[in-house]
Design a protein that fits this description.
The longest helix has 25 residues. The mean pLDDT is 96. The protein has an 8-stranded mixed β-sheet with strand order 5-4-3-2-1-6-8-7, sandwiched between helices. A 6-stranded mixed β-sheet has the order 11-10-9-12-14-13, with helices on both faces. The N and C termini lie close together (5 Å). By secondary structure, the chain is of the alpha/beta class. Bound molecules: adenosine-5'-diphosphate (ADP), acetylphosphate and magnesium ion. Acetylphosphate binds next to loops.
Length: 402
């Protein structure tokens, strides 16, 4: 077994790779960075070494392989290269683990083949995750490559929450059910919320709202996921940057039969050209808030539609849980967009949900409570840290195996 104490975490997205090199002895970041716009002419790599100034590289990264090679060079330049004996494992975010992968898993050829088999149900994500694993494996074939799945935390959902009400035999044959995603974040944030409140996660009921590019809500009862908004694929649920979230499946039939769109065109429409982008031409919440403050009607509608869907899930999960102790906002929008938090919780005092405008306006990278003392439900902003969670799970597996 490796005696290393560091884990490199790769979170490969469709056009980006986020990475962190973490020292597991104290959880500190030795380096962190992001490669974005992979495959486009104006690619960008931002690398931040521990303690040092961040370095930016503007160049074209034709594919994920090229991006990861540049990441390896940046790490080597800091003296913490991929060849370091202190590296214990490489942890990979893998979005869809299907029915089989409900725990962190050491990747071999057979596991990789199963992750590839799941590409049709995570077309935006699993292909990039696979590339990340393949490139990392080529660079360090001797190191354990460990996959940590977005779906894993949701495997505890009761069957009545996971099932769609469609013919059971058909559903079972094709493994059609709700899997849920962003599980690593929901798990981390629900625990961090308990820590913020000084409570035992086992006795806390939390609604977690992960609002990033993809967005999902979950109901977590005593540390266990009991429902989540994403489904067979990361398309169901909340309004997202470019994804529609919930639509009547009849919309698909109609667009095909009457609108003449092919299934692939509808897939592209709902996954890449809908959500905030489809409603107003922008998928960045900052831009949408700026435009709507200037009175732009399309941006205002996009904001209102986004918030309305969010409120429906908050109400729904309130009923699912029966008793809610905390609501936690996380990810890019949840952590930064105070107007979204305010609008999503406005007028819910009857449910014991209140937000203090001054606390809500505070900008900080720390977990913090934004509800007043009298609010029965604690509303909080709890920054997610999927990379740390992935590193911890990967490191624990390496040690358990050793
Ligand atoms: N200061 C901010 N105010 C409002 N929204 C923000 C802010 N910073 C980031 N965001 C939003 O966060 C989103 C990205 O969230 P993030 O969690 O980083 O996404 P992902 O990890 O899914 O790529 C973007 O759509 C952006 O609009
Ligand atoms: C599953 C998912 O939607 O992930 P992301 O938010 O990274 O797109
Ligand atoms: Mg994210």
């Amino acid at each position: 077994m490796s005696t290393g104490t560091r884990v490199l975490v790769l979170n490969a997205g469709s056009s980006s790779v986020k990475y962190q090199l973490i020292e597991m002895l104290d959880g500190s970041r030795l380096a962190a960075g992001l490669v974005e716009r992979i495959g486009e002419p104006n690619g960008r790599l931002v690398h931040t070494p521990r303690g040092g100034p961040r370095r930016e590289t503007l160049q074209t990264f034709p594919d994920h392989g090229a991006a990861l090679k540049s990441v390896a060079e940046e790490l080597a330049a800091d003296g913490v290269g991929l060849d370091s004996p202190e590296l214990a494992a490489i942890g990979h975010r893998v979005v869809h683990g299907g029915l089989r992968f409900t725990a962190p898993t050491l990747v071999d050829d057979e596991v990789l083949a199963e992750i590839r088999r799941l590409v049709p149900v995570a077309p935006l994500h699993n292909p990039a995750n696979i590339t990340g694993i393949e490139v990392a494996r080529a660079l360090r074939p001797d190191l354990p490559q460990i996959a940590v799945f977005d779906t894993a935390f949701h495997a505890t959902m009761p069957e009545y929450a996971a099932r769609y009400a469609i013919d059971r035999a058909v559903a079972d044959e094709h493994r059609v059910r709700r899997y849920g995603f962003h599980g690593t974040s929901h798990q981390y944030v629900s625990r961090a919320t308990a820590a913020l409140l000084g409570r035992d996660p086992a006795e806390l009921n939390v609604i977690v709202l992960h609002l990033g590019n993809g967005a999902s809500a979950s109901a977590v009862a005593g540390g266990v996921c009991v429902d989540t908004s994403m489904g067979l694929t990361p398309l169901e649920g909340l309004v997202m940057g470019t994804r529609s979230g919930d639509v009547d499946p009849g919309v698909v039939f109609h667009l095909h039969r009457v609108g003449g769109l092919t299934i692939d065109q509808i897939d592209d429409l709902l996954n890449r050209r809908s959500g905030l982008l489809g409603l107003c031409g922008d998928n960045d919440m900052r831009e949408i808030m700026r435009r709507s403050e200037e009175g732009d009607a399309a941006a205002r509608l996009a904001f209102d539609t986004y918030v309305h869907r969010l409120r429906k899930y908050i109400g729904g999960y309130y009923a699912v849980l029966g008793r809610v102790d905390a609501i936690a906002f996380t990810a890019g929008v949840g952590e930064n967009a105070a107007p979204v938090r305010a609008a999503a919780t406005a007028g819910l005092d009857q449910l014991g949900i209140s937000v203090d405008p001054e606390l809500n306006a505070v900008r900080s990278g720390e977990a913090r409570v934004i509800s007043p003392e009298y609010s029965r439900v604690t509303v909080a902003v709890v920054p997610t840290d999927e990379e740390l969670e992935i590193a911890q799970q990967a490191f624990a597996l390496v040690h358990a195996a050793g």
